[in-house]
Write a structure and sequence with these properties.
Layout lengths: L9 H24 L5 H6 L22 E9 L2 E11 L2 E2 H10 L5 H10 L5 H14 L6 H7 L6 H12 L11 H29 L16 H9 L7 H14 L7 H11 L4 H13 L6 H15 L6 H12 L23 H17 L2 H22 L10 H10 L7 H24 L23
Helix pairs in contact: 4-18, 5-8, 7-8, 7-12, 8-9, 8-18, 9-10, 10-15, 10-18, 11-12, 11-18, 12-18, 13-17, 14-16, 15-17
Length: 465
């Protein structure tokens, strides 16, 4: 006997939806009630929330040679602020950037070598790495069609993560965690991510935005930054100055120490013995969060709110009044946050923000973005005073790289949907370096403890509940 589904009338559908919504609200209340703790319990049991010590420093969880993020010195147990330093394998990134600018060359590939192999490459080594990355840049046959075109996604970060996981199926030796095999996988991921990112965006643009889609093949001789700009733009053209500024962004985002959230997640998954694709996909998921890499999107939202809410961007008093509204949750996203300000380690300055701001201003004039940069500069200058008045104390607060990176990407014509994905593309080098270090020296699965707070309860048969 053939059965048919009888469609519900609109009224029945409305009543069913209302009943479902009421049930969901009740379940939410019950779920919330069993997941709340007394804030004093965290102090009572000496819980280091966020894996932070009481002074805000990170809990020491391991050793690393990959990177050092330096923002203060401890003097008799107290923090003494210093100008921030970002050091890749012992080399100050500020010096690395200066060297690349002085010689008018791209630096990201040099960072890849430095982070993976521990020293600055010779010209022959750098040329060899570029050849390897160009060779690995080609995606597996049918990958774009099968994994990206047929499964459009609104959020490019999620598509990056799912695409990385999908590459597992195209790898003939995916679970081998020997250093040689993981190095091969790492170089392939670093080389392939720009094309996956751009293809994911083009499919999203066609499917969800109903706009033209174009998929360009990369050129072997191009740097990572040139590849991104060429494949992203419909006419495949870009200015050399644009490519160098994007390359600078990639260099500054390539790595940021083992304690940042996404790198820690990558190392934690790696410590379990899992495969490279699982570990890197987990890092991408962590980076997406607005408290981490996704913060650059929040800065752009905040900037547009300031632009609309302030009549004269050059008037510090007007800008300051609006910043007070942000802190008071009366404007912006009502979070009470001034995005792009403050950092867990840097106190006086974030070297990435300093370098990016200095170099971006050179192009901003030609691109018509000087006013916006001056507005962000006002945010950087005025925020410490506002927070000191509101919260008290004399804690130093500086701009972080997110304050300027989003506007730089906008100036380069990069869609806002790619702000955080570009961060992920750059950070692939750091994640892979840390994964290899964890495999080589970690030795133990990461397994922090949680204090159990539930009280004993007797089991009651279902019929008696």
């Amino acid at each position: 006997m053939k059965m048919f589904n009888i469609p519900m009338h609109n009224q029945e559908m409305t009543e069913a939806a209302a009943a479902h919504e009421k049930s969901l609200e009740q379940l939410t209340e019950q779920l919330t009630s069993c997941n709340v703790f007394d804030p004093e319990d965290f102090q009572r049991y000496h819980v280091k929330r966020g894996l932070r010590n009481s002074d805000g420093t990170g809990v020491l969880a391991g050793l690393t040679n990959v990177c050092n993020v330096h923002g203060y010195v401890l003097d008799e147990g107290e923090k003494s602020p210093i100008d921030g330093q970002l050091v890749y394998r012992g080399v100050d990134v500020t010096e690395l950037v200066r060297g690349c600018i002085a010689e008018n060359r791209f630096g990201y590939e040099e960072c890849v070598w430095l982070l993976l192999f521990g020293s600055l490459p010779t010209r022959a080594q750098l040329d060899s790495l570029r050849d390897v990355l160009a060779y690995y840049r080609e995606l597996p046959e049918g990958f774009i069609e099968d994994m990206i075109l047929r499964a459009p996604c609104k959020d490019i970060m999620n598509k990056l993560a799912s695409s990385v996981l999908a590459l597992y199926a195209y790898d003939e030796n995916p679970d081998d965690t020997s250093i040689k095999n993981v190095l091969r996988q790492s170089l392939q991921l670093i080389a392939r991510m720009p094309q996956i990112m751009v293809a994911s965006y083009q499919v999203k643009r066609r499917y969800f935005d109903h706009k033209s889609m174009y998929v360009h093949s990369p050129k072997q001789e191009h740097s990572m930054a040139e590849t991104i700009l060429r494949t992203m733009r419909s006419n495949k053209s870009f200015e050399e100055e644009e490519a160098h500024l994007l390359d600078l962004c990639l260099v500054l985002h390539a790595e940021h120490g083992g304690g940042n959230n996404s790198t820690f997640v990558t190392r934690a998954v790696s410590s379990s013995g899992s495969d490279t694709y699982s570990a890197i996909a987990a890092g991408i998921g962590a980076l997406k969060g607005p408290k981490h890499g996704g913060a650059n999107l929040k800065v752009i939202e905040m900037l547009h709110a300031i632009e609309e809410g302030v009549d004269n961007w050059e008037d510090d008093s007007q800008v300051k009044d609006f910043l007070y509204k942000l802190v008071s949750k009366e404007a912006g996203d009502r979070s009470g946050l001034i995005y792009g300000m403050g950092h867990a380690v840097y106190t006086k300055s974030d070297p990435r923000a300093v370098i990016l701001k200095e170099n971006a201003m050179k192009l901003a004039g030609r691109k018509g973005y000087e006013a916006q940069f001056r507005l962000l500069d006002a945010v950087e200058r005025l925020t410490p005073e506002i927070l000191a008045e509101r919260k008290g104390g004399d804690k130093l607060i500086c701009a972080n790289v997110d304050l300027y990176s989003g506007l730089v990407y906008e100036m380069l014509g990069i869609p806002v949907e790619l702000n955080t994905p570009i961060f992920a593309v750059a950070r692939m080098a750091g994640w892979c370096a840390h994964r290899i270090e964890e495999i080589a020296t970690g030795g133990r699965i990461m397994r922090p403890a949680y204090k159990a707070m539930s009280s004993p309860k007797a089991y009651v048969p279902l019929s008696e509940r």
